[in-house]
Structure formats: C-alpha cells, structure tokens
Design brief:
This protein is of the alpha/beta class and 284 residues long. The protein has 9 helices and 13 strands. The strands form 3 sheets. Strands 7-6-5-8-9-10-11 form a 7-stranded mixed sheet, with helices on both faces. The longest helix is centred in the C-terminal third of the chain and has 24 residues.
Length: 284
C-alpha cells in the first residue's frame, strides 16, 4: 500500500518558508499530496503541515529527516516528520460511563482511526468483558482516596509497558497528578461537557435542565496541570429546548461527547493538531 511522510512545522513567521520547504521537497523529486499552512499574525508564528507521497521521494524517513535538518535550522523550526506506516499506539482510560469507550472501540475496529488501541485502564472493573471481547488487555487500577499516588504509579507502569504514544481519557473521572501532565504533555487527550464551571459536580445535566439551558456542548482538549483548561482541539454543541427532559439532555450530551472526542483523537493521530502555548492550530 502507498504510504506518506507527514511533515509538520511551527516556526517564526517570515517570507520564503513555503517556497523553501516546497522547493526542498520538489528538489528531491517529492510529490506533495496535501498542504496546509497558517500565519498567526498576532503571535508572529507560522504553521505548516505537508503530506508527501513517500514513493515519489526515494528516501527513507530517516534519510529525509537528515536532509531536512539544514532547512529546519535556517528557519528555527519546531518540526516533526512521521512515516504513516507507523501506527501510533493508543491507551484508553475510562471509569464507569462507557459511551466514549464504546464509540472509540467501534471506530478502531472499523478502521476509522489512524492508530491502534492497545489497552484500556480503568479505576473500575465494569468494562472488562467488553474490552476483552475486543481482544485487548484490561487493567483494573482502583484509586484509593487516601493513596492516589500508588494508583497513578501503577497506571504509569501500564502506559509505559504498552508503549503508548497517546492516552485518551474517555470519561476517566480522576484528576491526573501534575507530574504525569508534565511527562505526557501534548499526548493526553480529555473530553468534558461544556457546563463547567457553571454546573460542576454531580448530575450536571440535571442542574442545567433546572436552569433552562438552550445549548449542550462538549470540549476535547489536551490535559495540562490546570484542570480542563488545556489547549482545545475540538468543540461542538446540540440545541435543546423546554420540551426536553433531563434524560434527553444526558442522551444528547453523550452523543456530543463521543463525536467530539473521536474527531479530536482522529485529528491528533493524523498530525493535524499543532500546539502553540495554550492554543492549537487544527488543519482539519
């Protein structure tokens, strides 16, 4: 099957970047099959994502990286190049709500994700049979209120043993400690409903119903030390009215959450998300 080299770049904005990179690729016989770029005028930053038909360039990914180094230094680039034959390894973490996990497992088995789910970690044992039916390992790691560090140490060991490139918190209802947020920066994706901070705690959809909200939403974002405040990847909404019950709101909310999380994960795996500070550029 054909494969591609995917080049992503972030650097100070200046004239000549597109010409230099495109000329470099053309000079090596490469064919660019998809090109996206964006200039952030306020930040003075330039972002780029190219897909290059690998067979056209006649170089391995390692050789192409070495050849591109002088261009990267010339423009002070933060950059990465990935061969799409490598499928990123994804670990999913979940608590008791199954809708996001079930959706991701379906999309993975249907071939919709450019990566492989390699294991599931949970602080409850509820989803074991479903996960193991998919042929995946399931790790039950209870989180004791008086000793959470021990649980997170065990969780970290599982993530490392599974050689995870990305961790997805699919309604995992525990807060990761700062050290893990720092260690896996830009590699942990979370989903939360949009009622925060107005309706925090238990039964947020019921609280929202009592206030007569008209919009239900969800946010997919990278995890940072500041709770639910990391760089946003994707968001969406669903309109509701006085006709809808609290149970309707919960159902709509689940639909939005799983769709937003799936899109965010897919874009991340396809190298379409570039992080700059606490913002993202998404070439979707």
């Amino acid at each position: 099957m054909s494969h591609y080299y995917r080049l992503v770049v972030s650097c100070p904005d200046r004239r000549g970047i597109v010409a230099r990179v495109s000329g470099f690729i053309a000079g090596h016989g490469g064919s660019i099959t998809e090109a996206s770029q964006h200039s952030d005028l306020e930040a003075g930053r330039f972002f780029m994502r190219y897909e290059i038909f690998a067979d056209s360039i006649g170089m391995t990914a390692a050789e192409l990286k070495e050849a591109f180094e002088p261009v990267a230094r010339e423009f002070d680039m933060d950059w990465a190049l990935r061969d799409t034959r490598y499928r990123p390894r994804v670990v999913v973490m979940v608590s008791r709500e199954s809708h996001c996990l079930v959706d991701l497992l379906y999309r993975w088995t249907a071939g919709e994700l450019e990566g492989d789910i390699v294991g599931v970690i949970s602080n409850h044992d509820d989803m074991r049979s479903m996960v193991e039916w998919h042929g995946l390992p399931y790790y039950h790691v209870p989180v004791a209120a008086d000793d959470k560090n021990a649980a997170f140490d065990e969780m970290e060991r599982h993530v490392e043993a599974l050689e995870a490139d990305t961790v997805v918190l699919a309604r995992y209802m525990q807060i990761l400690p700062p050290r893990l947020c720092q260690r896996y920066a830009g590699r942990v994706i979370n989903i939360h409903h949009s009622f925060l901070p107005s309706f925090a705690g238990a039964r947020p959809y019921h609280q929202a119903h009592l206030r007569g909200v008209k919009l239900i939403g969800a946010t997919c974002h990278y995890v940072t030390e500041e709770l639910d405040a990391g760089p946003i990847i994707e968001q969406d909404i669903h309109r509701v009215s006085h006709c809808h019950t609290p149970q309707d709101l919960v159902r709509f909310g689940r639909d939005v959450e799983k769709a937003v999380l799936a899109r965010g994960l897919r874009w991340h795996l396809e190298d379409r998300v570039l992080i700059h500070g606490n913002k993202t550029v998404v070439f979707a």
